[in-house]
Amino acid sequence: MRKPSSSSSPMTITNLSLSTIYFCFFFISTLLFTASQATSSSLILTTTKQQQNQDQDKEPFVGVNIGTDVSNLLSPSDLVSFLQVQQINHIRLYDADPDILKALAKTKIRVIISVPNNQILAIGSSNTTAASWVGRNVVAYYPETLITGIAVGDEVLTTVPSSAPLLLPAIQSLYSALVAANLHTHVKISTPHAASIILDPFPPSQAFFNQSWSQIVLPLLQFLSKTGSPLMMNLYPYYVFMQNKGVVPLDNALFKPLTPSKEMVDPNTLLHYTNVLDAMIDAAYFSMKNLNITDVVVLVTESGWPSKADSKEPFATIDNADTYNSNLIKHVFDRSGTPLHPETTSSVYIYELLNEDLRSPPVSEANWGLFYGNSSAVYLLHVSGSGSFLANDTTNQTYCIAMDGVDSKILQAALDWACGPGRSNCSEIQPGQDCYSPNNVKSHASYAFDSYYQKEGRAAGSCDFKGVATITTTDPSHGSCIFPGSKKVINKTRQVVNSTHSSSGADRLRFIALSSNRISAISGILSVFFLVFSSTLLFIPFVTPC
To answer: Which among 153, 195, 289, 291 has a CA at the least distance from the CA of 519?
Structure first.
């Protein structure tokens, strides 16, 4: 009799099949449950991340304006790379440059694009033109390029009043085009104003909008309230100070710490103001409140301080510009709001990123930038502890080098001082040493200047040498020549030698300006008198009509 195999037993086959089925059912159920939990967790994490991003977008920030009247402007790709290195995540353009918008694609940089003043009439007169503009400049790039706002014109009411009647129609037509593209919740639309549209701004509680523009301003504010868009204001404490010298203390304009007796106090509200910018922002809030608008936030689309000017503007200095912008950045990231609205901190766009050396006089027009056109720093901002904005390693690691085009005799005199009384370490630029080549005064002066600059702790004013030196964030080291302050490693120790002289050629003298401004920020003449009363400085306005 043939011995049956175990597999031939009907009972065994049935039991094994049921066991296998039960096991597979349990296993698959477990997998499905685990997968569903993972999916749920993933959705929760995604939702949380989206919420965090939305919350982050609501946090106050500091951005920069980018003007393009710059000789040898960086290419769009280099410009975007520079922004990323500097950790600048918010920018405002004065147009909708297609090359820059393409270069911004797939970055985290958020951009406000602009409708130039000369296009307002066409857009305000035609819905078709407005729709075409949105399609060409927004829809074509979003969401790869994070366009967050449209600034329609710039200071239209005060600079091109003939276009004022069509300003709101242009804004409304563009908004309708955004609605049609389902982008109106992502892209806000407004128009930047000069501070001069607000009259009697000091004290803030007495401020009000120029009534000659009431037929435009009120409907505009109602539109901003309805669409959740900000009131864009270009606010310059620099001009308030310049037009009220001897009345408004410089420290108030520069955000410097004040004793209680020097604080500005609104006599109507008894609110204390420690700086001019907060007073200007609150003047805008009080002006809106007078028109029963209380839910529109102020976005400061321009603010800054020039670092160079002619004799008529003696306070346009590197130290003052550095102090203002550094303290401005800290003030925003402190999230302390204003005396009237401590719960709301206005975001600010610094005017501006690059010095626009092609702008017309006065000299200060070309001297508002944080950086030169070649991306070297005009001055070193002191922003440590204020987030990552402009506080990256490249910015903090700066060097001092000779400017291009300086006469060789002037440069040689500066080099002699650095290696003599300045006690720079000039041993590396001696014959046979690592930094001797190239043997010209500019190269040798750059090394000596940087040695002095690093020795002085990169202090403000230590990279000047009577105007022939400039700060750069680019490491000037080359080959085996390692500059002081460089992160590159060198395993040699040199003896300090404190004098040198080298041959050189002369280049054409070139002065590069630092940035540009908006003189229309304060068009009226404001005179503010401070009255000491009960040991408190009260300010009482006196306004001379235009």
So the answer is: 195
Beta strands across the sheet bearing 264-265: 272-273, 264-265, 536-544, 525-533
Amino acid residing at 522: I
> What's the CA gap between 306 and 239, in Å, rounded?
10
List all residues 6 or more positions away from 55 whose beta carbon is below 8 Å from its beta carbon: none
User: Which two tokens mark 507?
Assistant: 């280049």
Rounded to whole angstroms, how far apart are CA atoms 496 and 180?
A: 71
Residue 487 contacts residue 454 (beta carbons within 8 Å):
no
Instruction: List b or e across 179-211, with b for residues whose CB sees 16 or more CB atoms inside 10 angstroms.
Output: eebebbeebbbbbbbbbbbbbbbbbbbbbbbbe
pTM listed for this prediction: 0.68
Active-site position among 263, 302, 352, 428 = 302
Distance CA 262, CA 517 (A): 28
Q: Give the separation between CA 285 and CA 242, rounded to whole angstroms.
A: 24
Of 458, 434, 344, 447, which is closest to residue 402 (Cα–Cα)? 447
Residue with tokens 């080291």: 477
β-strand partners of 354: 371
Neighbours of 227 (CB within 10 A): 18
155, 263, 352, 365: which is the annotated catalytic residue? 155
CB 329 within 8 A of CB 344: no
The average pLDDT across 261-275 equals: 92
Check whether 327 has a pLDDT greater than 60: yes
478 forms beta bridges with 481
Select the more confidently predicted residue: 358 or 530. Answer: 358
435-458 pLDDT tens trace: 999 999 999 999 999 999 998 888
Asked about 313 being catalytic, the answer comes back as no
List, in order, residues 6 or more apart from 87 with CB less than 8 Å away: 388, 389, 390, 391, 392
352 is catalytic: no
Sequence-ordered alpha helix ranges (H) in 59-148: 76-85, 98-103, 120-125, 127-134
Q: What does the pLDDT average to over 196-215?
A: 94
Task: Express each pLDDT in 514-527 by its tens digit.
Answer: 233 333 333 333 33
CB burial string 313-339: b at 16+ within 10 A, e below: bebbbbebbbbbbbbbbbbbbeeebbb
Question: Is residue 428 helix, strand or coil?
Answer: helix
